Amino acid sequence: MVLKIVRTVWPVMLTYVAIGAPCGMIMGQTGMEPWMVFALSSTFVTGSGQFMICNLWLAGVPAASIVASVAAISSRFALYSASITSHLTGASKRQTLAVAATLTEEAYGISLAKLVEGEDWGPRESFVLNVILIATWGVSCTTGAIVGAVVDVPTAIAAFVCTSLFICLLFSQRLSRGNVVAAVSGAVSVAVCKFLGLVNIAVPASVVVGITIALACDAVFDGRGARDAR
Q1: Coarse DSSP helix, strand, coil percentages of the chain, rounded to the nearest 5 percent
Q2: Whether 141 contacts 23, CB under 8 Å
Q3: CA-CA distance, 10 to 8, in Å (whole number)?
Q4: 105-116 vs 76-85: helix axis angle to the nearest 10?
Q5: Mean pLDDT of residues grouped by 10 in the chain (230 residues)?
Q6: Is 137 in contact with 24 (CB distance < 8 Å)?
Q7: 73-92, pLDDT tens digit by residue?
Q8: The predicted structure's pLDDT at residue 139
Q9: How many alpha carbons lie under 13 Å from residue 139 in its C-beta half-sphere?
Q10: How many of the other CB atoms lie within 10 Å of CB of 79?
């Protein structure tokens, strides 16, 4: 079973190595020891959240603002867990909890696709997949922290790995009115907050503003389209 899962997920594992190593370098520059990096990476399963914690900490952002920002971008995992548990038919509560509590975004996509397609895939396979990816991420981050302690890699270069990842995710999204409005309004709100000196709340504020304006825009235009149709 493990070999079957590895053959399925090895491209994602390579991606984790490429992204996890720079993340570990940044974590090391915050003063974390390699064992601390491994402990955090193995229990905090959102890589983007780890990048955000390190970058905001290095920028001197208060802890409360860091918690709010990371909580905002990590809240999607509650939806992932709720979505996949409905497909784990026949699983016990303990198995369902184990799968839901160890999900990563990539593991969610792979497991959900296999469960929906009716393949030979259940809670055991989903949990083992989660563990493999978490272990890969943890080892990659720890390796990056060890290498970063020996080789001086500028923080800006390592941090741009996460930025480039989000840029790729942005351009891979369906070009819709809501997505464009959310991206533009979020960027504008960050610029306005920084211009006003509200650096501590720039990130969480941009998330709230972008989503709110996009939802309002879609509601207005969808309502107008329904009236035109009538």
Answers
A1: 80, 0, 20
A2: yes
A3: 6
A4: 20
A5: 86 85 83 89 81 77 80 80 81 86 84 81 88 91 86 64 62 69 83 79 76 82 54
A6: no
A7: 787 788 888 888 888 877 88
A8: 93
A9: 10
A10: 10
Q: In angstroms, what CA-CA distances link 204 with 13, 71, 201? A: 30, 9, 6
Kindly state the percentage of the chain with pLDDT values over 70.
Answer: 84
pLDDT tens per residue across span 139-148: 998 998 898 7
Give residue-wise pLDDT tens across range 200-224.
677 677 878 888 888 888 787 776 5
Task: Give the Cβ contact number of residue 103 at 10 Å.
Answer: 26
H or E element: which one contains 153? none
CB-CB contact of 116 with 139 (8 Å): no
Structure tokens at 12: 């994602």
Where in the chain does DSSP place strands (E)? none
Residue count of the chain, please give it: 230
Asked whether the beta carbons of 27 and 37 are under 8 A apart, the reply is yes
Please give the Cα distance from 180 to 210 (Å, whole number): 10
Rounded to whole angstroms, how far apart are CA atoms 224 and 230? 10
Token representation of residue 36: 């601390």
Q: What is the largest CA-CA distance in the chain?
A: 68
**What CA dihedral angle connects 49, 54, 59 and 65, to 10 degrees?**
40
Q: What does the alpha-carbon distance between residue 209 and residue 182 come to, in Å, rounded to a whole number?
A: 8
Structure tokens given for 92? 């016990």
